[in-house]
Amino acid sequence: MKLIIDLPPREQQIEFNRIRWSEILADRRLAALPYRLETNAHGQVTMTPPPSIGHSHRQGRITVLLNDLLGGHALPECPISTIDGVKAADVGWCSDERFQKVKDQVAFEIAPEICVEILSPSNTVSEIRSKRNLYLEAGAEEVWVCNLDGVLEVFLKDAPELRQHESRLCPEFPNSIS
Fold first, then answer.
1. What pLDDT is stored for residue 30 in this prediction?
2. Which of 2-16, 130-144, 158-172 has the highest mean pLDDT?
3. Are 25 and 81 within 8 A, CB to CB?
4. Given CB 3.0 to 4.6 Å as the disulfide criterion, which of 21, 107, 113, 115 pairs with 81?
């Protein structure tokens, strides 16, 4: 039997995410929690533990390198409104042009051009594949996955299942972060 999941049209889900994410941002009890918060398509909050030192180090290095190499806006813990709720990319990079379109939104309604996920031991393959597909569907040009060993894999909008080892948008970026 094939499973079919009914999702509302993108515009309707984005409007729902906007309202729900605003409620979450205003909730002081949620803000006090030591977890990363995201939502699913139904607005339910999902929580993951805070990252390790190695994860934070890679997140910082990637953010700095993107700023140095591309300018624009490299943003850690970047909230992205997707058809499956609001997800937080470890790093999102967007051009000045895209940033002007989204700067007043509570979550990116058009994904940053580059979305980066830094793996933690608790991540599953299907979770990262889902996030990759959600970011691409939301408008990302590239999704980068930084593996536990620091090696980067790049997935492009026009070839979402094909791993690349070099970015089209930032070919000077190293293919490994130590």
1. 92
2. 130-144
3. no
4. 107
Please compute the mean of the pLDDT values over residues 15-37 and round it to a whole number: 94
- The string over 112-144, giving b where at least 16 C-beta atoms fall within 10 Å of a residue's C-beta and e elsewhere, is bbbbbbbbeeeeeeeebeebbbbbbebbbbbbb
Whole-angstrom distance, CA of residue 87 vs CA of residue 135: 9
Return the DSSP state at 66. Answer: H
Mean pLDDT computed over 75-95: 96
| Cβ atoms of residues 50 and 34 within 8 Å | yes
Beta bridge partners of 152: 146
Q: Which residues of 159-170 are buried (b: 16+ CB within 10 A; e: fewer)?
A: eeeeeeeebebb
Query: How far apart are the C-alpha atoms of 93 and 11, rounded to whole Å?
Result: 23
Interatomic CA distance for residues 26 and 38, integer angstroms: 14
Q: What pLDDT does residue 79 have?
A: 97
